[in-house]
């Protein structure tokens, strides 16, 4: 039997570069996914909680039957950031998100749950 040709070994530098590239891609993916906002998927009747603060809210959709539910969406206005569209007795939340070729704008009218 003829001897098998030996497989060229990879240098430690090449292996390290490949590992760094994979870790970087995973990190970018995690950052991208974590930047998604539940607010942009909210519908009338959804309940929400604020994981941010009053200055920089971070609204997330939650089950209305839990203690986490602090707001209920009463209206969704697309393609605008005009918070005056919400009635005076509600909390208005506006967001504008830039994407590569477009911008998503919307306003949520939120009723505070007691």
What does this structure look like?
With 114 residues, the protein is α+β, with helices and mostly antiparallel strands. It has one helix and five strands. The chain has one helix at residues 12-34, and strands at residues 47-50, 59-62, 71-78, 91-98, 103-112. A five-stranded antiparallel beta sheet has the order 2-1-3-5-4, with no helix packed on it. The termini are far apart. The relative contact order is 0.15.
Q: Please tell me how large the radius of gyration is.
A: 24 Å
Strand order of the largest sheet: 2-1-3-5-4
Work out the number of β strands.
5
- Helical proportion, percent range: 10-25%
Query: DSSP helix count?
Result: 1
Question: Which blocks of ≥5 consecutive residues have pLDDT under 50?
Answer: none
Strand content: 25-35%
Mean pLDDT: 84
Largest sheet: 5 strands, antiparallel
User: How would you describe the shape?
Assistant: elongated
Find the structural class using helix and strand composition.
alpha+beta
From the N-terminal CA to the C-terminal CA, the straight-line distance is: 82 Å
Q: Please provide the ordered H/E string of secondary-structure elements.
A: HEEEEE
């Amino acid at each position: 039997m003829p001897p098998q040709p030996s497989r060229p070994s990879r240098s430690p530098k090449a292996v390290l570069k490949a590992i760094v590239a994979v870790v970087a891609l995973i990190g970018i993916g995690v950052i991208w996914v974590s930047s998604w906002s539940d607010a942009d998927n909210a519908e009338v009747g959804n309940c929400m909680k604020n994981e941010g603060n009053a200055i920089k809210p971070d609204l997330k959709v939650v089950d209305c039957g839990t203690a986490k539910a602090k707001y209920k969406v009463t209206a969704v206005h697309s393609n605008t950031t005009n918070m005056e569209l919400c009635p005076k007795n509600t909390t208005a939340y506006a967001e504008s998100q830039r994407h590569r070729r477009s911008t998503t704008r919307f306003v949520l009218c939120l009723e505070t749950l007691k």
